[in-house]
Predict the structure of DNA polymerase III subunit epsilon.
Amino acid sequence: MYAIVDIETTGGHASAGSITEVAIFIHDGKEIIRQYETLVNPGMPIPRYIQALTGITDEMVENAPAFESVAEEIYNLLQPNIFIAHNVNFDYSFLRHQLDICGYKLQNKKLCTVRLSRKVFPGFPSYSLGNLCRQLKINIQNRHRATGDALATVQLFEMLMAADSQGAIAQALSGRSKEKWLPLHLPQEHVEELPSTPGVYYFHNEKGKVVYVGKARNIRKRVTSHFTGNSSGRQRQEFLRNIHSISFEKTGTELMAFILESVEIRRLWPQYNNAQKRIESKFGFYVFEDQQGYLRLAIEKRRKYSTPLYTFNMIAEGHTRLRALIRDFKLCPKLCFLQTDNDECVGIADKSCKGACNKKEKPVKYNQRVLEAVEHLQSEQPSFVILDNGRMATEQSCILMEKGKFYGMGYVPRDVAVSDSTMLKDWLTQYPENEFILNLLRTYATTNAARLKVI
């Protein structure tokens, strides 16, 4: 038995909108055996553009029953039957949400006449209900009213059953079929083509623009997890409606997928990626020459496109490290901006400063010690390669850290010896680094020493 359904609502999201009209036709596979229809008082004003579209006004629903008054009857009609609608997840999400509020748990098998029509009647320019009815000569009356649209869906479903020579309906009802959970505009073959390997996947909208980037240990499994469930939230429903296609890039390891995802989020700035978009307020050491020719070692916030000598999370950490450099290399606290008042340089009193701030020490001598301090900072930063599985058995993946900086990553044939960074760079793709990637690699290096090769 089938319950062929159409509803009208106050908006496009179940958690923020309400139902204004419900029509249900119970069909035994041959004919309609029961019909139910009712207006519903949504408990909120109907937006004017919805009134113009459906013809349902606030005055029409003023004396209509609230949903809780008809919830039990609707539940009893729907629950034993296969739930059918044109864009089934829209109608199902609204009714399931409203019934859940009233204490009823809707758990039906579903069929979507949009998806079935694409399979049974391929090649149509559009699969909207109005266009399908024109193509198939279905007489649709009271368009955008629940009863009119539901009756047209009944006729469409009867035509689908008659023309279904390939068993599309049975396949869609199969417990193994995941198609009913997919976003309306996403072809099933896009999911079937996904590999079960680590990598990065991209959701594209109708115009091909990337709207979401994700990483995965298993691309197919992770992508399908986005579509399970029937969340009624506005953001999720909008997100699913905007997915029209998927592309992907395999990576040798999950770690590489993490890195590539971070790079791609910052490159593409996708609409539905919120994490990693925040502006990083990390700090770093920078060196520059002032107008008198003295090299100045300074702590500054990291800025876009800047390349610090050394980075740290807390400014207190930077001050501690800077004091050590001043002490060990006899630098001037004032020229390093550690002392910012007009008092006499504290470095002269403790003999760490040799008078550069008073021009008693020439720039050439002072700058030599600054360069030694910079070299010391850089020498403390490790250079290593992370070696792991490739995308195929004949290669290995490589991630290069050079003097504490992320250079890039790529794949090297297993018969090529990894000996120095200059040779390795011919095989690698250089990527921009960010604090997320640096912290990720530092953490990985401390817990996976066996996969590191120091160079």
